[in-house]
């Protein structure tokens, strides 16, 4: 059905000047807010969570209803470290950037705590199951580059479904529309339980009923919002017909939770219908420009395969055997997804809130400054260089992560042979971007990864009993003698230039000493070559031999591709 024929949702009357406004799930909690901690996953709806909510409210401080990591650890019988991880995760996906947990310093976030009702929204969706990866639309093209099954797959030989996801060469991420429909259907199904966690009981006509205040309804904004492309997200209470005309000077009268439930279900049904109709129109219509293949050698920042979604992240997909650059003016929105890229070097030199890297292999990916969260998933033999508030690594193998992170890296799922190292690069606008997104370069927790379960309870696969308690393999630090700096070309030439002249994340002593030794050795080698007493023909032979060795290294390391790309620029 054409978009102009769509029926307006029940929340907003359609006029010539006011386009219809639809309800959407917030992607962030579902993509970056799920933790594989068994004691936080409740499968009985709100039955267990309501008593826990009441206990936490009794422990909370004042009218703000906030609880710190100690209260959370006591309520769920988890460690203090895991309780802090809960607070950090919630802060990274909250719908309000002014919340104290978002603005707190990294060392204070555990004591600042979270609002109990935001915690309830977070806990409820821990029962969510992600969509399985789907068949890739161009499976033949990716078959020769998709991560293959490694020799150490036998470690989890019983977990064939996990291996299937990784080794199947025809898998890719679900589309944004599929994910949105899946998330919205989950929320529609569980809406009654979710509202019961925000509602309070009142007595009337001899029986108890649940009512919802305007203040409590806003906590549902953790999971859903109203809004469309190019417009601001509308607070739920402003879009709700029963609160829309409330006097800001007077507290709004609570309304029956059943009334809120019916209104939201109706809006969700309308939104799901719209998603289905749009998907059908896309399948039957002409292929969009973002679906077209581009030449692998073309590294122009404006012509590679990239497609921003209407509300979701910019998507960089299918780059193979090439270099690819995205600068701030190239990014639409505040999130980026890098999907199915192989044997390439990808630079995303922009301030972001969220970044996801999925299904990449034999690549180097540089993420500029990410203020909320980074997720790296199903990657193999990838080098990731990231400056971020936090990072989660899931189901990866033989990857190296050069990190500048304010919070401990989180390792989940079936990881193997991972290495971590301190951040190792810079570009001229890096410090400006770090300040813009709130990443503190004086704090780097790269060397303190936290390993959780080897099985992700949020996937849709079945797992053998008892395996969910197995801890995933942790990451080892890169040997300081193997640590090298990564040089980013001056992609900002001719554009706005910043003041960053060096790596803003201080190097640990062992890595700094190694770098100084390498520099000293380089200078000694250069001086030795200068001082060699040879005639001109012998000097030319030595120079030719050095050039051959350097060329061999360029081809063996794959860096020859970068050289060609730079020449092409």
Automatic annotation (TrEMBL):
Keywords: Coiled coil, Cytoplasm, Cytoskeleton
Record organism: Solanum pinnatisectum (tansyleaf nightshade)
A GO CC term assigned to this protein in UniProt: spindle pole
Compartments, record wording: Cytoplasm, Cytoskeleton, Microtubule organizing center, Centrosome; Cytoplasm, Cytoskeleton, Spindle pole
Gene3D superfamilies, sorted: 2.160.20.70
UniProt cross-references to InterPro entries, sorted A to Z: C-CAP_CF_C-like, CAP/MinC_C, CARP_motif, TBCC1, Tubulin-bd_cofactor_C_dom
Major localization class: cytoplasm
Entry superkingdom: Eukaryota
One Pfam family matching this protein: TBCC
Annotated protein name in UniProt: TBCC domain-containing protein 1
Family statement: Belongs to the TBCC family.
PANTHER family attached to this UniProt entry: TBCC DOMAIN-CONTAINING PROTEIN 1
Annotated ranges, domain C-CAP/cofactor C-like: 286-439
Coiled-coil features, chain-numbered ranges: 512-539
Region feature (Disordered): 1-23, 278-317
